[in-house]
Amino acid sequence: MDRAQYIQQLGNLREDLLRLGSMVEYALINAVRSLEHWDTVAAANVINNDDPINEARRRIEDHVIRLIAGQILSEEEPRLLGSVFAIAGELERIGDYAVSIARRVQRITNQANIVVPPQGFSELVLYAKHMLNASLESFVRQDIELAYSLRKQEERVDELEEQIQNDLIALARQEPERIESIVGMLDIVHALERVADRATNIAGRVIYLTVNIPEELNP
User: Nearest 5°: CA angle at 145, between 98 and 160?
Assistant: First the structure.
């Protein structure tokens, strides 16, 4: 592969990563929508569409390995290839969390006593979706200010998770007949918090890629 072909392949790799990001965003949006409407058909679609996400991540990783093996790299290119490899892994895990939410929706809808998402849940959902989108946007624009902004948002997500968990545990004590639905909702809340964690990890990779500073935004 000559240098011109290699540069073209780098561009293709970026496009593949953004395509994977779009697939994962779509999965998360639909998983949340299945919860909002207790839509088991939508939940099943999220679960069934997980394999293409996993396959897209594998193709990106294989592509990265082939590019590393086939070229003498410039100083910046190992950071780019390593970052793409890592971000693809983070995105695949977010896809897994979307599947986890969808599976919990399926289980909760089978319970006799469905629990209503408590106060703060909608805000947590908005943060998770926004942070995923912002992390990808920071990659596209190489925007380290946007990447750094996720640190503060992650702190708020942690606060919301704790608040919602406490409310759900209190509800379980008051209404033990809803315990199975409450446990499912606790799992969903944790999955959303993990989405925010992974988005923050992506932002840290963007900072490393852009200014060559390893940054842990979510210690």
Answer: 45
Task: Give the angle 93-98-101 at the CA atoms, nearest 5°.
Answer: 125
Place of tokens 């590393």: 68
Q: What angle, 0 to 180 degrees and rounded to 10, lies between the N-to-C axes of helices 50-70 and 40-48?
A: 20
Beta carbons of 17 and 64 less than 8 angstroms apart: no
pLDDT of the residue at 67: 81
Residue 81, domain member (yes or no): yes
How many Cβ atoms are within 10 Å of 156's Cβ, its own excluded?
A: 14
Structure tokens at 167: 């409310």
Residue 71: what are its φ and ψ, rounded to 5°?
A: -145, 155
pTM for the structure as a whole: 0.93
Domain count, the chain: 1
Q: What is the pLDDT of residues 39-67, one digit of tens each?
A: 999 999 999 999 999 999 999 999 898 88
